[in-house]
Amino acid sequence: MLSLTKIIGRMLLLKSYKLREMNDTLKTLRILLLFILAQLVLTGFAAAESRIKDLVSFEGVRENQLVGYGLIVGLNGTGDTLRNSPFTQQSIIAMLERLGVNSRGTDMKSVNTAAVMVTADLGAFARQGMRVDVSISSIGDAQDLRGGTLIATSLLGADGEVYAIAQGSVQISGFTAGGAAETITQGVPTAGRIPNGAIIEREVNYALNNNETLRLSLRSPDFTTARRITSVINQSMGQMVASPLDPATVELTVPQNYQGTMFSFLSDIELLNVNPDQPAKVVIDERAGIIVIGKEVKVSEVAIAQGNLTIRVTETPQVSQPEPFGQGTTEIVPRTEVEVAVDVDESGKEFAILNSGVNLQDLVDGLNALGIGPRDMIAILQALKVSGALHADIEVM
């Protein structure tokens, strides 16, 4: 049998082992917690950054707009009328003549046909045989384009050349229904789309790999953002390959190791992350009551009150009666009281103070403390700008 001393010794040894195990577990938890916090901080910084490809457009890499005039057939009596759209009948006659049918001099109705404008965007580096979406819009007095089919229509570029041919069934999201006394319209039944409705017949030639220099155009011109893009690109390439020309343009010089492989050069650049800067601006849409406040907007210390000044006049008639056995007479004496008050309590509106140099959250909280709606807030922001306390540009849409 073990002695009492050995038993106590083993118990103390076991307790010491468990304490060390708990300490190791706590250390592991601390390390894990610090790692999670570091990841959150890094994620927060990364969330504020954007890829260069989302901030700029590359010179020559752009879309080209195409437009054409066509006819939609197969409508159920909802097409153009001869009286209001005579060009539709002329287009039908011209189309039939191209197909070998002579219809001149005949009495023709066009209620099943509609004249439309067809538009599409020719993407950068689009090749022959590829398909693009087209948009259809009526230019006559057609009531509904549902069920119609677009006849082969040539789509022209700005140079007058044919770049695509569009044809297919039109998809319409709106509709019109009604009777003799009432009509209901949802959406726009005179405009629609044809997904993959045009086939590209001509390419826009652009030799990207042959360029030795290329320009990046910032979508939101800014001096600081242009400088940051330049710095990030030069640090990534290890040499001076980028230089800002103005707030909207950064010029790139292709390094020797990327000569003839502009595609790889741009692919490496567009994935670089940059933290873009933005000016202090407040955008207001008075018609819709929409306010957008940039994060860089600051205000000086100012006090704001919003409410109505009400002057209330009340009359309380009082009876003047003489003492008993007196010689006077009983009369009604009007008593007028004038009360001047600021009715800020009717809608929970109070006087609020905005401290100097507050950030966006403090500004919004201070304005919300007044308990006002967007339209009143628009007036307050404009008054802050006039007073000089709002350090931002106000753009009214």
Describe this structure in words.
- It contains six helices and 25 strands.
- It has helices at residues 4-47, 86-98, 223-237, 262-270, 360-368, 374-387; strands at 50-51, 56-58, 64-73, 113-122, 131-138, 149-156, 162-169, 175-178, 183-186, 191-200, 213-218, 242-246, 249-253, 273-274, 281-285, 290-293, 298-299, 302-304, 308-315, 318-320, 331-333, 336-343, 352-354, 390-391, 393-396.
- A hairpin with an 8-residue loop joins strand 4 and strand 5.
- The radius of gyration is 38 Å and the shape is flat.
Please give a handful of descriptors for the protein shown.
single chain, 397 residues, alpha+beta, 3 domains, six-stranded antiparallel beta barrel, four-stranded antiparallel sheet, 33% strand, flat
Brief summary of the model shown:
With 397 residues, the protein is of the alpha+beta class. The chain has 6 helices and 25 strands.
Largest sheet strand order: 3-4-5-10-7-6
In terms of per-residue confidence, which ranges show pLDDT below 50 for 5 or more consecutive residues? Answer: 40-47, 336-348
Determine the structural class based on helices, strands and strand pairing. alpha+beta
Biggest beta-sheet profile: 6 strands, antiparallel, barrel
Query: What is the number of helical segments per DSSP (H or I, 4+ residues)?
Result: 6
* Gap from first CA to last CA: 94 Å
Average pLDDT for all residues: 77
How much of the residues is beta strand, in percent?
25-35%
Radius of gyration using CA atoms only = 38 Å
Give the oligomeric state.
single chain
Q: Write down the overall geometry.
A: flat
Tally of strands: 25
Helix fraction bin: 25-40%
Domains (count): 3
